[in-house]
Amino acid sequence: MPNKTVSIHISTKNRKIDLEITLRKIQYLLERKDVECVIFDDGSSDGTFEMVKNKFPQVILLRNEISKGYIFCRNKMLNETKSDFTISLDDDAHFLTQNPLEKIEEYFDATPNCGLLALRIFWGIEEPKNITSHEKPQRVQGFVGCGHVWRMKAWRDIPNYPEWFEFYGEENFASLQLFKKNWEVHYLPEVLVHHRVNLKSRTKNNKDFGFRYRRSIRSGWYSILLFYPAIKVPRIIAYSIFMQIKTKIAKGNFKVVIPLFQAIMDVFFNIPNLIKNRNVLTREEYQHYTELKETKIFWKPEN
């Protein structure tokens, strides 16, 4: 990629071991002259900053002494980069595909209306035994934060990620802003990312579950209230709450009660932000958007 520059962005906090694994996995990319890697340490207290500084001196290292949240970090990195394309990875995610940058550039060059690439993501502690996929690239509604690539021209065409979302949902916000600006989000299965997480432990950990559940469900409501035509909003929100009651609370899953109530209160608290940032889809845009393929989140190996 002699005529292009690529930036790899990772926001992290107190994940020193995971981050070091990731950086060693992508070390071969960090050594390329056409690649820069930016790590934003969001107030870690576990020695993350020192580890990166000492072991990966080629990395551009930023730090918040006091945590400001990963959305703040992502906005700052994206707004300051001079690269043509920016890869965003979680601190516990790395590429399994060989030559990912060439595949990414080739696709962007061949698809000028594509503003963002959603990569194929495998979720699990161990690497999959089979990484082959027969999926084809396609336009989709959105993307996942742990593995995606921005065409920076598209990023500069939309508002920043909303920091008041705090956790979850900024990807849907950006996807809908891109849609309004006639940029497309495409799923590129040719590039595989390994997200080294244990989803079962997240579900069993009540504190972690409540934290993620509250922010996940409210972020969905935020997107609906920000972008969907007013006539559609009451029915969709009401149905969402009804389904949480029917599929969870009515079946004895009472650990969702408090975070569900908190999510509802979050919506009321953020009414000023919702009004200020509303960017409603026309009926035609809404129809077109809902006809797109849904966001590809989890990939499982083929048998």
TrEMBL record:
<keyword id="KW-0808">Transferase</keyword>
<feature type="domain" description="Glycosyltransferase 2-like">
    <location>
        <begin position="7"/>
        <end position="128"/>
    </location>
</feature>
<dbReference type="GO" id="GO:0016740">
    <property type="term" value="F:transferase activity"/>
</dbReference>
<protein>
    <submittedName>
        <fullName>Glycosyl transferase</fullName>
    </submittedName>
</protein>
<dbReference type="Pfam" id="PF00535">
    <property type="entry name" value="Glycos_transf_2"/>
</dbReference>
<dbReference type="InterPro" id="IPR029044">
    <property type="entry name" value="Nucleotide-diphossugar_trans"/>
</dbReference>
<dbReference type="InterPro" id="IPR001173">
    <property type="entry name" value="Glyco_trans_2-like"/>
</dbReference>
